[in-house]
Amino acid sequence: xxxxxxxxxxxxxxxxxxxxxxxxxxxxxxxxxxxxxxxxxxxxxxxxxxxxxxxxxxxxxxxxxxxxxxxxxxxxxxxxxxxxxxxxxxxxxxxxxxxxxxxxxxxxxxxxxx
Length: 114
Prior knowledge:
Elements: H1 2-13, E1 18-21, H2 47-61, E2 67-71, H3 97-111
Parallel strand pairs: 1-2
Helix pairs in contact: 2-3
């Protein structure tokens, strides 16, 4: 996190505005339907862990006025490794991006309403 902190600090001191980005869960090259990172959760990280990480990063940078947003998850796509396809509003906790994004967004806003 020291490198990430230093990067955010350097960029924001130079006047760049930052949007935090949750790109993938596993440390690896991105992206494919078979990489197990198409959804906001996977076999290594639960949906609750994803939300926890978002809230923690939001809290970490909430006093830096140049950190202006939080991309909840970049490039939602099929997870063929687990046989899951993201849907909008289907009510299934494992695949409903609308439900997951709403829950995560509300958690982030509870941490920092700005």
